[in-house]
Amino acid sequence: MFDQLVADTAGTHGAGAVGAWTRVENAACARRLAAMVTMLDACHAADGSVDREQWCLDNWGAVCAQIGAAQQLTSGAASRLLLVAVALRDRLPHVGALFTSGTIGYRLVATIARRSGLVRDPAALRAVDAALADAVRQWGPMSVDKTEQAIDTLIAEFDPYALPRTQDRARGRCVEVFIDDASGLANLWGTLFATDGKARTGRVGAEHVDGIQRHDWDQQPEGGEIGQLGQGQREECRREEWHLGSWLRGARRRCHAPF
After folding, report:
1. Cα–Cα distance measured from residue 212 to residue 228, given in angstroms and rounded to the nearest whole number
2. What is the C-alpha to C-alpha distance for residues 121 and 143, in angstroms, rounded to an integer?
3. Cβ(27)–Cβ(1) under 8 Å?
């Protein structure tokens, strides 16, 4: 099959050549990952394999070190490749077949392997694999977010409890400030836990904030309150460090970890 993909590039030019060589590249990547799994199998089949699982450098680590040396990658990057390779062989054979044929690329395959990692029921996993293999043939170019949403939608049909939710999103919590020098104003944007956001919404219009009476900082009390907090102009703010989530809930505490 691979030789045929290479042969199909003959006489192509322009966008046709790009598409033909993209299929060759995808198929070559699939075979590279398959070779990694073969290395892992050989390591597990060798004498003393069980004992090495307790070593500082176990079977997985040893294979990743070899893969990294062969490709000039770190062991961590090699481990991520090996995880995808194992998932394609053991969990997603239909998706793996499309990858081997050059129909889909590594980025999509890696996203599918990651998003389907929580599917444990064998029947559900087989159904997800078959459904995704059929669906991706029809997909056009999509952003990373839309691709993940499409994958999650299919997974939810067969195993709704296997969707990664809180952990990934919670790790992305942040607060950003964008300063507009021309207007003298700044935009505050942030992502919080839903409980913090609801607590903040429930406190809008309150006459006191943490026991401190509001003042007429400007026509927008909420914005003025945050501004005073950032400047540390209030006595309570000078005496204690504030954790944003706690402040939004109306509770004051010392913060020993970044938000």
Report:
1. 12
2. 29
3. yes
Q: Is the alpha carbon torsion for 34, 36, 37, 39 positive or negative? A: positive
Q: What is the pTM of this model?
A: 0.63
Q: What is the token pair recorded at 49?
A: 């394999």
88-146 pLDDT, tens digit per residue, is 999 999 999 999 999 999 999 999 999 999 899 999 999 999 999 999 999 989 999 99
Contact in structure between 39 and 65 (CB atoms under 8 Å) = no
Reported as a single tens digit per residue, the pLDDT across 193-238 is 777 776 666 554 454 445 444 444 444 545 555 555 555 544 444 4
* HSE of 119, CA atoms in CB hemisphere, 13 A: 26
Q: What separation in angstroms does the CA of 190 have from each of 90, 153, 193, 225, 254?
A: 40, 26, 10, 16, 20
Question: String of b and e for 151-190 (b: at least 16 CB within 10 Å)?
Answer: bbebbeebbeebeeeeeeeeeeeeeeeeeeeeeeeeeeee
**Residue in the structure block whose two tokens are 């029947």:** 123
d(CA 196, CA 48): 53
Question: Largest Cα–Cα distance in the chain?
Answer: 78
Separation between Cα atoms, residue 207 and residue 205, nearest integer Å: 6
pLDDT, tens digit, for every residue of 23-70? 899 999 999 999 999 999 999 888 887 777 777 778 899 999 999 999
Is 107 in a helix, a strand, or coil?
Answer: helix
Residue given tokens 């997909």 in the structure block: 139
